[in-house]
């Protein structure tokens, strides 16, 4: 770990301003991802701004009938919150499908949104990686790709977003609230928050330098059945091969996002209108532009089957 | 003590302490965090080493720039092949433990950065700039196996009768190819060492299974006197064969300490372990079975291909096929290709573990072809003599003279309760509830199936020594360089000494894992439990003699019990023997050639029930049972722990474990515990272990055999067969992940 300076932020706006002053600054909350990456020198911040004291760790109701989740709310607390469990079961289930109890106790809502890819080539610093070192190339393409993305990929990157929570937030139409270094706040729809890799896979979100996530809001509850289906080789503590986060209404209509297939939680709203025609039809729309590798082509059929499983579960 | 005739009745047979399910005597140290593992030894003025691993698989270092790293804060020394002096190579190592300029495999250690703190060493290690000249390597077993050669050592080929003709003649034939992948030991504690020099004396605290091998090879590698080395490994946080040998952490800690003139500690970083250390090599196996319509095997052939670095060893995956089932015409063949992947070597039950993963699917497939119950098919072909060792030269004109069918020179098994294992397991597991038609049983969205497989592992023994002391206060202390790699060695050694000397377990102290103690069997090949306690037995026999002499007993019926020595009406406290000073006895149990006259193996049967998600193809194990016949069980509690651990490891091999090879760069790409998945608690809901009552007087005075590796043998196939029973999909390539099942699963 390279040496770095450290400060405790006094307010969200202060934190953002402090981050803007130092180009290599990073916010630290739970640290469950950042510290690992710092040990490997994949992340090399020169300055850490501890945001844990900013009192952004509670849930409140919004005027629109939804909820505002503080950026620093721990995954464990969020998953266990009564309002989340009763009205946004999908979010609760997605959270509990991720990581381990110990990690969820530390990990925060904002940190989970910013969780970086688990592509093995991103982690091995002997290998070229455009995310780690822009312009160096992508050694994942043509390599071991079983876990990697099948859709929305580019010639520069085929990494996936590993988060379960993000899949739920995408299906629930969350909004990410932030404060910028100049004190301005903004609300970024979740659909625009995560980026596809394109030519700049190192740019993963819409956040600007220094911009700090303060909250995530969810619109008023959708009702329906909330299902998170995570498919993986082992029963726990593994990243999804494919996951489906869905809210299915009694009439069979619904909405869903898919994890483990793309650089961002994958949702194609037009595909949702195909639900009545069955999972294969939905998948066709979802993966219209898919570019799987030989090793991860199975994710397409697997998503179809996972979707069918979700629809079946909603029916019973 | 020589052991060359079957053991008679001896004090161990009392089973007052031995054979009892005692808790681990060192358990409290471990649960309170006070058992000091290698890296936790803190020495005054110690420094920290961080290993730089090669960034290519094959080629040369063109240049290595260390100036910037040397200038980094806290850096004391940087060790490289260039400045380390001339190094030898250990007897049991294939690749160099400090590489350069030639690179033999990915993440081969090429430098150690030593600094005041771990963090400084790590930061500086990232400043070492290396330019490589890459060479084309051979990384694909499938591509290279055609070039595979007959290994020089061992018995790569075996033949009895005429396999080809016998197979051709058989009424029912089966022929299939199976694949097992490379596996990583993935033990909890990484390889770690702390080294300190005192003049030309070297002390190393390390994590190693075989103290004597380690000390020998360290001397050879450093070109120093073996006697000037003290290796200590009192606690080992898992080994599984990955710590059988001298590895780079020991060598680099010693070299780093020499360069820094200070004690240095080195732990291999987790991402290095898969490629820097050894692994279980992948295999391709072809199995052919010929049988009569009524299920008698007449011909069985097993060929295996694996790869290793030039000068390395094959994975002996055909081993069990020479012993497990009858059949007159047989052949096995092992071929070894050169691969430039990291070094392959032993991992828990080398040979049998991957061999049975293939053979025991083949047996399931053949049973189905014959329309015979898989258990009955195995029992039908059970044998009480080694089928691979014919009683007399085969006489073509007289079929009765063929192998294993008469004559009085058959090589018998000392004990072979394979059929009993199957019968008991079937009864307890509820085998009769299995629907022999695959893909018939549903539980909601789950397809449910039951599978079975035989377990087999040869019983190996190793000479083992110990020293036993009787102190003035009556405490018995055992010293041996035996290791406890989580297996329970401390406890069974204490039980042995307590039984022999007639004292309670609390009166025994056990000191292990120090090269100044008598050389033991060490921990490997499931020989450690039986061999090391036999060594303690031998030393205790000597101590009993010394005690008897001291106390003036010369009767034959002398008894050691209740901390007393008794003969006839005379009884004296044991400790009286030491009232003039401690009594010390030392001996080594030397195994003769008894196992050449009577073959010793361990047997078992695995039963597994799985559910396979009909939508996603995810396999989840529902319950597992192992029935083991493995000689006397010295401690049913620690033995059970061994077997449930082995079942878990077998489940990993069946369902998820695979070192993924990047064939362009020649390395295992998933080289951390996020990428290399091993089972977690949620994968293992219910396990049951049954030990059949058995004593084997041919194995040692303890009448025990190994069980820690038997437990993994066959598990993978039992899972595979259960998946087939659940889904009707037969997968012959491990691990059986959902992507291999889905293409053949019914639509949903």
UniProtKB/TrEMBL annotation, chain A:
All residue ranges annotated as the FAD-binding PCMH-type domain in the record: 1-223
InterPro entries registered for this protein in UniProt: CO_DH_flav_C (IPR005107), CO_DH_flav_C_dom_sf (IPR036683), Diverse_Substr_Oxidored (IPR051312), FAD-bd_PCMH (IPR016166), FAD-bd_PCMH-like_sf (IPR036318), FAD-bd_PCMH_sub1 (IPR016167), FAD-bd_PCMH_sub2 (IPR016169), Mopterin_DH_FAD-bd (IPR002346)
UniProt keywords, alphabetically: FAD, Flavoprotein
Pfam family, one: FAD_binding_5
Source organism superkingdom: Bacteria
Protein name: Xanthine dehydrogenase family protein subunit M
Organism: Mesorhizobium liriopis
UniProtKB/TrEMBL annotation, chain B:
Protein's UniProt name: Xanthine dehydrogenase family protein molybdopterin-binding subunit
Chain residue ranges for the region called Disordered: 139-160, 383-413
Organism: Mesorhizobium liriopis
Pfam families hit by this protein: Ald_Xan_dh_C (PF01315), MoCoBD_1 (PF02738), MoCoBD_2 (PF20256)
Coiled coil region boundaries: none
Aldehyde oxidase/xanthine dehydrogenase a/b hammerhead domain sequence ranges: 32-136
InterPro entries: Ald_Oxase/Xan_DH_a/b (IPR000674), Ald_Oxase/Xan_DH_a/b_sf (IPR036856), Ald_Oxase/xanthine_DH-like (IPR016208), AldOxase/xan_DH_MoCoBD1 (IPR008274), AldOxase/xan_DH_MoCoBD2 (IPR046867), AldOxase/xan_DH_Mopterin-bd_sf (IPR037165), PaoC-like (IPR049648)
SMART domains (alphabetical): Ald_Xan_dh_C
Lineage: Bacteria, Pseudomonadati, Pseudomonadota, Alphaproteobacteria, Hyphomicrobiales
Comp. bias regions, Basic and acidic residues: 139-153
